[in-house]
Specification:
alpha+beta; two-stranded antiparallel ribbon; 8 helices; about 40% helix
């Protein structure tokens, strides 16, 4: 390359090369930094984490039983009013998990609108009952089919209905994310928002421990891996 005064000017490649190296290095570290940042939104105490680890160790480890005989009806009426408060479980969870809710003027149980800060995706979703109601769905954190294959087949009908309507096992979440999860356990599906995965794992562990369900070996490994990523605060 020749300058205006006729001298040969060498391309200044080193400066650009350094910038490129720095950009690659920063990019390589971005996922880990992003995960740590997101996890800080959902810290857990050292005691909660220790209890979770102990409960996970106590869970029986077995293979997945056949899905034979599973139907949603095995867990009772969908969204029954098991707590006797006059409202069905779906509306109870919407009222708990959404902010700024409005209810039906003719039925105060029915949530008409609200805003969900979705834990699974990190997105803020405007809920409006009607054509787009499915944008927000109620997830069984431990899926009913998963429970069926890991101990619930032996339960009474009453216990299965209680499980299906237990607020500890229910979350209002992004509809598409819930559909993607399906009946997956922690070995096959985790929330897209990496920062929520520790809390999600702890919730699954607590529910399975409370109801005497078991885990597969792969599932236990996946849950333990997420506990290792928890951000602890005291």
């Amino acid at each position: 390359m020749t300058s205006r005064n006729g001298r040969v000017r060498r391309p200044r490649t080193w400066g650009w090369l350094l910038l490129l190296v720095l950009a690659v290095a920063i990019g390589a570290g971005a996922p880990a930094w992003s995960e740590a940042r997101d996890s800080a939104r959902f810290p857990v105490t050292a005691q909660v984490l220790a209890d979770g680890r102990a409960a996970l160790e106590a869970l029986p480890v077995k293979g997945r039983a056949p899905r034979t005989g599973y139907e949603r009806s095995q867990f009772g009426e969908s969204w029954a009013d098991v707590d006797g408060n006059g409202c069905d479980t779906r509306n109870d969870v919407l009222a708990r998990d959404l902010t700024g809710i409005t209810t039906d003027p003719d039925d105060s149980c029915v949530v008409r609108t609200g805003t969900l800060d979705d834990p699974y995706t990190g997105e803020v979703i405007a809920f409006e009952r009607g054509e787009h109601s499915a944008d927000v769905q109620i997830d069984h954190v431990v899926a009913l089919s998963d429970a069926w294959q890991k101990g619930a087949q032996q339960w009474t009908a009453e216990k299965r209905e209680q499980f299906a309507n237990d607020p500890a096992n229910l979350l209002a979440v992004d509809g598409p994310a819930n559909q993607q999860k399906g009946a997956g356990d922690a070995a096959t599906w985790l929330p897209p928002s990496t920062g929520y995965r520790c809390v999600y794992a702890l919730r699954q562990i607590r529910v399975k421990d409370a109801y005497g369900l078991w885990v597969t070996a792969a599932e236990k490994d996946a849950l333990a891996d997420q506990l290792d990523r928890c951000v602890v605060t005291d």
